[in-house]
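Q: My collaborator sent me two sequences in one message, no labels, and asked for predicted structures for both. Can we handle them in order? The first one she listed is below.
A: Yes, handling them in the order given. First sequence, followed by its structure tokens:
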Amino acid sequence: MQDERSSKRGGPDRQHVSGGKGYEVDELAKKHGISNDQASRLIRQIGDNREKLDEAAEKLKKR
């Protein structure tokens, strides 16, 4: 029988961003109105935690 968790989409992996994938950098940049360079820098500094990245991007945008 298939594990219930494995059949759900958007699970724990969606909580992380991959800095090596351009489309995810682009997605973060567009979502928060920042440049791709700024988004890449945030991913390098903060890591791949989507919640923390969203918070940091919003703070950056307000500057």
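Q: And the one she listed second?
A: Here it is, processed independently of the first:
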Amino acid sequence: MASAEPPAPDLSEALGAAILGSLPPSDEEQDHLAIVRRSAQAEQEVRRLLGQAVSAARASGHSWAALGSELGMSRQAAQQRFGTMPGAGGPDELEGGPHGTVEERWLGPVTAFDEMAELALAGRLGWRTVGAGMLRHRVRRTSTQWEHRRVVWVGATSRYEQDGWEVAVRAFPWVYLVRDTGRPAGEAPGPTLSEGP
């Protein structure tokens, strides 16, 4: 990726700390292969996060030309690189929880502008988000009502967990939180829920 400016020093420091964090202190002998392995894992994670960020930007209405400009590449290069990338939120991609025999559906299409209202309505009917894909959420039916919250993915989620929230989905740049209200699920008609793959 061609970039117009070098990485921010604080970002480089954070990545370096994350890579070296579990390795022995620098006064001990360094395992260079472990550093290579952790650096490769960090690169894979950053690529996944970038794919999710591009997906979120596209879902919010940003053009491939605008994305290409931010990435220091042409519109066509951005579209070719991220248009079919795992993590870019293709139609069959699902980020999130396990899928067994419980009742699950896709909620959508939704955008960053209307998804929280749709999730609130679905939550009152006993549906909770368990995954997110391009313009949709995977929801699971329960017997109780759920609250949904979307926050920017910055740091630990323990401050939310203290208030009873649990992480349902991490879909960069967002973290979707859910909280069981303990009230029985409602029976009113809800959002359009479609059968999914």
